[in-house]
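Schema walk-through. Below, the input block comes first and the output block second. Nothing else is stored per chain. Lengths vary across the set, and this one has 353 residues.
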Amino acid sequence: MKNNRRYLLLLLATAMLVSCSSKENKKVETKAEDPGLAIENTVESNPLPSWNDGTNKTNIINYVEDVTNKNSPNYIPVLDRIATFDNDGTLWSEKPVYFQLFFAIDRVKAMAADHPEWKSQQPYKAILEDNMEDLKKQGMKGIEEIIMSTHAGITTDEFAEIVTEWFATAKHPTKKVHYNELIFQPMVELLEYLRANDFKTFIVSGGGIEFMRPITQSAYGIPSDQVVGSSIATEWDDNNGNPVIRRLPKMNFVDDKVGKPIGINRYIGKKPVFAGGNADADLQMLQWANSNSYKNFQLYVHHTDSIREWAYDKDSHVGTLDKGLTIAEEKGWTVASMKDDWKVIYPYKMDEQ
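--- output ---
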């Protein structure tokens, strides 16, 4: 029950910011340097081309070269080269709210024709009227009802089709591009660089596992079986000889904070040697990697670019980074500044507005 409340509180916190979405960060990305719409894969000759030369880029490359060198005392066997990454705010943007909440809100609107009672029933009434102040008043109970109404009651295959279609058609309210275009090019390059050096890359996110799986291969090159996330309960249905898995309206596992190392242990079975996140909710995952007997690496993505993306950390309700920054400084972990370390944020040139 505690984990369920934590997950719902996380969603509620994002809902509180929806009302600010039209005011917050109306600026879109304008690149001082544009390395091109399609950055060539030059992993061997020029690893991490969208990263500015400097200490943080050097730290990453030096680590990878050290642990993959068979003559190094820090050599890590291929089977133990496990790298885990948070998704929201680490591999793609998460403002003004987590993308999964936008998905749930859009689902309420898409399903409304089959539920005329929603026009006068909260929390649906608030969504249909775009009244985010009233939505906030519904609290965790209202958020839970929205999530369960829009994420459950269908088969896993049906849900995957809906999510895939949403990613192909829905657009971010301020960036005006598809959500799956708001991935971070420097992090995609990092994933490719690690895989080129025989690391196995995983997503370990507080987001819904079946919400992420349909797009992780195309977005990051990470197959669906290497995604760990929060999940709702499911059940087997023989379906008259055409078996399906049905999604139930109750939580199964919350992959956030302490849930991340638990999820890693449960679904991956090995400690990561490389872990990347952007928030305090990722701290336990980075600490879990830090406890590995192999030489390990911790990376925090710090949102410091108010022009090309967003700037936030300690005071943000989404992607709060406070304690993690302190511990990163104490332990000498790498903190990558979007403003200072990244030549480009997204893998395309966004139209200037």
